[in-house]
Amino acid sequence: MRISEILAVALLQASAAWSSPLESNAIEARSNRPHHPIKPHHLGKPFPQSPDRTKSCTVKANGNGKDDSQNILKAIKDCNNGGHVIFPKDKNFTIGTALDLTFLKHIDLDIQGTIQFTNDTDYWQKNGFYQTYQNATTFFQLGGQDVNVYGGGTLDGNGQVWYDLYAKDIYILRPILFGVIGLQGGSIEDLKLRYSPQWYNFIANSTDVVYSNIDIAGGSVSSNVAKNTDGWDTYRSDNIVIQNSHINNGDDCVSFKPNSTNILVQNLWCNGSHGISVGSLGQYVGEVDYVKNVYVYNVSMSNASDGARIKVWPGSASALSGDLQGGGGSGAVQNITYDTMVLSNVDYAIEITQCYGQKNITLCNEYPSNLTISDITIKNFSGTTSKTYDPLIGYLVCSSPTVCSDINIENVNVKSPSGTNLYTCGSITGIESQVNCTTNGTKGGNS
Ligand SMILES: *[C@@H]1O[C@H](CO)[C@@H](O)[C@H](O)[C@H]1NC(C)=O
Ligand SMILES: *[C@@H]1O[C@H](CO)[C@@H](O)[C@H](O)[C@H]1NC(C)=O
Ligand SMILES: *[C@@H]1O[C@H](CO)[C@@H](O)[C@H](O)[C@H]1NC(C)=O
Ligand SMILES: *[C@@H]1O[C@H](CO)[C@@H](O)[C@H](O)[C@H]1NC(C)=O
Ligand SMILES: *[C@@H]1O[C@H](CO)[C@@H](O)[C@H](O)[C@H]1NC(C)=O
Ligand SMILES: *[C@@H]1O[C@H](CO)[C@@H](O)[C@H](O)[C@H]1NC(C)=O
Ligand SMILES: *[C@@H]1O[C@H](CO)[C@@H](O)[C@H](O)[C@H]1NC(C)=O
Ligand SMILES: *[C@@H]1O[C@H](CO)[C@@H](O)[C@H](O)[C@H]1NC(C)=O
Ligand SMILES: *[C@@H]1O[C@H](CO)[C@@H](O)[C@H](O)[C@H]1NC(C)=O
Ligand SMILES: *[C@@H]1O[C@H](CO)[C@@H](O)[C@H](O)[C@H]1NC(C)=O
Ligand SMILES: *[C@@H]1O[C@H](CO)[C@@H](O)[C@H](O)[C@H]1NC(C)=O
Ligand SMILES: *[C@@H]1O[C@H](CO)[C@@H](O)[C@H](O)[C@H]1NC(C)=O
């Protein structure tokens, strides 16, 4: 730091200290509950009402990185059933204890300050909430009924220590930053999510939840990349909206996992991701996975591996990596629409695969997927792909023509850097009349 910068910082700190008595009223101020309308598209079903809250509780910050979990739990318990919990602006909170918040009812969490999770990887691996699906764990789990979270503050997962540990051992359990487990009615709005060890948001066993104006960013400063940092994963959930958000991440921007139904995603800016994905599905033998009635509208997708993507495991066991294996499950992907996507430097504009985790297409076709794909519309795409698969811009490969039907690709005006618009096509009846298929066989398709 140069002298002038040191002076500037000192002046800022002095003015902050001087003005703090004046700000103490502002510190206790409640944020108004945001009202982000669900638009331009909406799901048919109305969302439940959320009555005004009648009392306030303020969370005390211990400071200096001391665990604030008990302060948080106390304020939440004091204000449950009709209250408004304030995490004051300009305060830093530390969470070093796994918090089970599945008892919430009629409560607003007004996070204006910053919450950081501790870097104690041993503690979190032992005490994070194990969600079973894909060995997912969470720092906390928030659920119950009628819960609104907002305030303009930040949740920071302290991810660097996890990115570095994962590079040494892929079997560690990296917590998800924001776990919504069993929430019936609620909203998560106006928050910044930073440095998640793994996925940023997991929403499971939930209904009637809206996410709006979420800003996601993070990444690693070491040579160990921040992996599997999906923006959202929906699971066993119905009537969910994700909209008006800005996502800088390194895996799926949004991913619809097993039993995601009636989901609307709109007005997203995604950078660096693996696209908006259905799946992966069919991972577990004996399980039935459905993803139905999904509408994805108006997405800007840059520097990504995919734009629209449907990934299904084949009928026989396959391995994508040591910690991601599967195949043989059954179910259906049905009534999915991707409408309006602007692409820039995206490897595949569209990728449909039923050979997820299986690079040998001959072997994939020998055991067709037990999971059908039908009633898919992909329309109004523009922009350019990356050089990665040029001259190809997409990959449309099912494991048998009998398991994929009614796939419609309309008004997709995407070109590769060399000006082509070719797709790898396989086992999808009638696809040749909709896109330009190459006869060069199969290439890529498993990222
Ligand atoms: C909160 O943490 C940030 C980042 O570490 C720091 O710059 C700021 O001074 C802290 N604020 C308080 C009130 O401790
Ligand atoms: C973990 O956090 C503590 C307290 O902030 C810090 O002293 C320590 O250096 C951190 N450890 C790692 C590995 O980053
Ligand atoms: C969801 O609910 C089911 C059935 O009650 C339960 O087995 C499961 O543990 C819950 N959580 C998740 C993440 O699936
Ligand atoms: C959890 O991870 C272990 C080790 O990779 C794997 O064998 C197991 O199948 C995983 N469980 C789930 C539910 O994915
Ligand atoms: C599309 O999304 C962007 C944000 O990424 C927003 O600025 C724009 O207004 C949206 N367009 C429509 C038609 O909703
Ligand atoms: C988008 O992501 C790339 C890395 O994939 C990064 O270099 C770039 O700065 C990001 N752009 C913005 C505007 O954040
Ligand atoms: C999905 O829903 C179906 C039908 O309700 C159920 O049979 C199946 O077990 C569910 N699968 C998962 C993974 O929850
Ligand atoms: C298909 O999904 C959309 C939501 O994207 C929904 O509005 C529509 O009713 C669904 N169609 C059927 C036949 O369920
Ligand atoms: C792909 O699978 C087929 C059928 O099992 C097998 O004959 C072939 O050798 C495999 N190819 C490679 C490259 O492993
Ligand atoms: C799944 O597919 C395999 C291979 O195609 C088949 O042998 C098996 O019976 C199917 N299982 C179910 C539950 O449909
Ligand atoms: C196929 O490519 C030709 C030549 O670039 C183009 O005129 C035509 O519109 C393409 N067809 C489709 C369905 O994109
Ligand atoms: C087809 O394969 C040949 C030989 O590998 C290659 O030179 C050509 O560029 C390929 N064309 C397309 C459209 O992929």
UniProtKB/TrEMBL annotation:
Its EC number(s): 3.2.1.67
Main localization category: secreted
Keyword list, A-Z: Cell wall biogenesis/degradation, Disulfide bond, Glycoprotein, Glycosidase, Hydrolase, Repeat, Secreted, Signal
A biological process term (GO) from this entry: pectin catabolic process
MF annotations from Gene Ontology: galacturan 1,4-alpha-galacturonidase activity; polygalacturonase activity
Bias type Basic residues, positions: 32-44
One of the record's GO cellular component terms: extracellular region
Keyword Secreted: yes
Entry's family note: Belongs to the glycosyl hydrolase 28 family.
Name of protein: galacturonan 1,4-alpha-galacturonidase
Upper taxonomic lineage: Eukaryota, Fungi, Dikarya, Ascomycota, Pezizomycotina
